[in-house]
Inverse folding.
């Protein structure tokens, strides 16, 4: 009977067994010895009592161990998403998936009358989650999953920069004074702004000691900076589909392509494969956007169909090439002299 | 862990008896088990696993403490001892006071009803 009890102890968590196993066996042994001395019925009573109490004790022991494990893990460490983990993937793809859900939500909202409180709750929940992840990534020292968030931020700041130039009528000055207008026409200031911001980010990361580990990570893996720039994708798509009607299904599909590219990026080991994942995701996304625009323009039966179609497709292709080229620039980081890594991921 | 004894009340009957068993001094598991049975007049018979579940919970709540191995446990006896902490003693006193209050009120009412 004592052997059976010892065997039953294997049902308890290992840590619990190690802590109390010896005592439990000793106490049960003494109880049995005493009961046997009094007679068979008494011994039977002890055994039945043990069997009766065992399920509850097992449940409590497992619950206790689980609670202890949770307590021993620091609260903050729960948000240290392991590279390649499901949590990291979900967090990294949130800017793409979040945008996709919001686009679809807006589209379905036209045909589906939901209670206003549900709409408000949904929007608040999503924005709170996105904003929370943004703060978390900032606090966590700009981990890999956070880079697309930075990309979105850089794209927005770049657009603000672009708007400031327009406000000060610098566009007129640019066209009048620059012979390079054909190559770097004013609309492309958006990209130039983005490039300047990336250089600024690199400079800050290099010079500010707090961000030095981040800079070193970018140096160790140049594709991280490409991933950051890839994060501008949702915002760029927003510009591509600007002023279109019923563009949401194509917009959402383009975002899904971006998410797909990001998903492969997070799973590939070799830098070249990671880079190609991003470029493939971008190319697919832009292809879907171009096709979507073509369908929408043809559907609208515009009088100036040919002109619009050509213009819009050229704009989409140019946008794609710009972003693809900018995403390739981080490779140049490899050409800089490499120091010994002081802080890896 | 909160140090307010009242926040632990009311205690379950086995918990009360386990703490009560430790009130005079430290005991090992088997001694607690026997003492609980004696204190409750044989009503509360703890199984080994139930006893250690309760002891584990009381340790987590810091109402009791587990003392390191000592000599003198006796042959075959567990070498770990359990003792009340200061918080555990205050909780036991608070529960006793609560029970006393209940008992006093109950006696008073019963006397009034019988008069």
């Amino acid at each position: 009977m004592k052997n059976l009890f010892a065997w039953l102890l294997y049902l308890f968590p290992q840590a619990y067994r190690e802590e109390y196993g010896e005592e439990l066996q000793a106490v049960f042994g003494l109880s049995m010895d005493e009961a046997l001395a009094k007679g068979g019925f008494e011994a039977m009573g002890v055994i039945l009592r043990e069997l009766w109490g065992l399920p509850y004790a097992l449940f409590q022991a497992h619950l206790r161990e689980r609670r202890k494990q949770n307590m021993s893990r620091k609260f903050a460490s729960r948000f240290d998403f392991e590279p390649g983990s499901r949590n990291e993937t979900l967090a990294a793809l949130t800017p793409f998936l979040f945008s996709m859900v919001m686009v679809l939500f807006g589209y379905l909202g036209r045909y589906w009358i939901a209670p206003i409180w549900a709409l408000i709750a949904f929007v608040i929940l999503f924005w709170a989650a996105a904003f929370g992840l943004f703060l978390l990534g900032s606090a966590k020292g700009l981990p890999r999953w956070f880079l697309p968030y930075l990309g979105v931020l850089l794209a927005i700041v770049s657009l603000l920069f672009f708007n400031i130039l327009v406000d000060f009528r610098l566009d007129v000055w640019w066209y009048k004074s620059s012979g390079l207008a054909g190559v770097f026409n004013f609309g492309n200031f958006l990209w130039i702004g983005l490039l300047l911001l990336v250089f600024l980010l690199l400079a800050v990361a290099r010079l500010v000691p707090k961000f030095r580990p981040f800079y070193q990570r970018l140096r160790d893996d140049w594709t991280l900076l490409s991933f950051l720039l890839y994060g501008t994708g949702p915002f760029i798509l927003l510009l591509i589909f600007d002023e279109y009607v019923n563009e949401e299904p194509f917009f959402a599909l383009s975002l899904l392509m971006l998410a797909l590219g990001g998903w492969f990026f997070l799973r590939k080991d070799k830098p070249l494969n990671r880079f190609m994942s991003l470029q493939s995701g971008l190319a697919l996304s832009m292809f879907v956007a171009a096709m979507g625009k073509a369908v929408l323009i043809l559907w609208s039966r515009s009088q100036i169909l040919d002109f619009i179609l050509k213009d819009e497709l050229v704009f989409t292709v140019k946008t794609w090439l710009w972003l693809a080229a900018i995403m390739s620039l981080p490779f140049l980081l490899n050409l800089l002299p490499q120091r010994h890594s002081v802080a890896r991921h | 862990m909160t140090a307010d004894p009242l926040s632990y009340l009311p205690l379950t009957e086995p918990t009360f008896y386990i703490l009560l068993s430790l009130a005079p001094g430290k005991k090992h598991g088997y001694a607690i088990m026997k003492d609980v049975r004696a204190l409750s007049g044989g009503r509360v018979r703890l199984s080994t696993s139930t006893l250690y579940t309760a002891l584990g919970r009381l340790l987590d709540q810091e109402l009791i403490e587990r003392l390191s191995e000592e000599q003198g446990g006796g042959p075959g006896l567990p070498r770990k001892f359990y003792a009340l902490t200061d918080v555990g003693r205050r909780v036991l006193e608070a529960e006793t006071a609560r029970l006393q209050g209940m008992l006093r009120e109950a006696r008073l009412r019963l006397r009034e009803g019988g008069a």
The radius of gyration of chain A is 30 Å. DSSP finds 14 helices and no strands in chain A.
